[in-house]
Amino acid sequence: MYSFAGKYEPSNQHTGQYERSGKGLRTDGGDHDYWNRLRRSGNRAAFADLGNTVFGVDIDEAKVERITRGDLPIYEPGLEEIVVRNVRAGRLKFTTSYDETVPQSEFVFICVNTPSSFDGDADMRAVRSASEMIAKSMCDHTIVVNKSTMPIGSGDLVSSILQELKSPESTFAVVSNPEFLREGSAVADVF
Fold it and tell me: How far apart are CA 157 and CA 47, in angstroms?
């Protein structure tokens, strides 16, 4: 998940593109295929490079430590430079804690793997798990963005999990944000 937190401050590279204040944006991960790693890394880096504070959450502590050091799980031209620049600037942070990031986040992106199961249906276990953790950590209003490749009806699945597990004072909206990144040009595609 990604989190924009705090007030929008334009970076040196991108200025005046939009104004933003309030809570944040966040993305969620796990051990996933190339495209989901690219999607998470590229989007996190792009949002941070636009001046937002972004949190990347993963359940694997070793992976969080590696990414924080700039050791990316994939190669994409230009990505490492953007990640390192934004980690050093304090706009891109990685953690294993949903509780540390979701309450600060206005937007929470679910970016997890949804591989095909043996019967050809999408394996939604990672989506369910991320939704449960988000629901338990939400406070105030949170916009949850389905960023993974998910079948029709996934928004309803995520909504039902959030509704069941959220605190009474929390509210939410679930939206879908499909994307199409091309290997070798994903950084350019995001910008």
Answer: 27
- Name the pTM for this structure: 0.77
47 token code pair: 């949002």
Question: Do 98 and 137 meet the contact criterion of CB atoms below 8 Å apart?
Answer: yes
Q: Which residue segments constitute the domains of the chain, with CATH numbers given? A: 24-186 (3.40.50.720)
Q: In 3-state terms, what secondary structure has residue 105?
A: strand
Q: How far apart are CA 68 and CA 71, in angstroms?
A: 7
pLDDT digits (tens, 9 = 90+) for 57-102: 888 899 888 888 878 877 888 888 888 899 999 999 999 999 999 9
Instruction: Output the six-digit token pair for 63.
Output: 């992976």
Side chain identity at residue 142, one-letter code: T
Q: Tell me which residue of 49, 42, 45 sits closest to 8, measured CA to CA.
A: 49
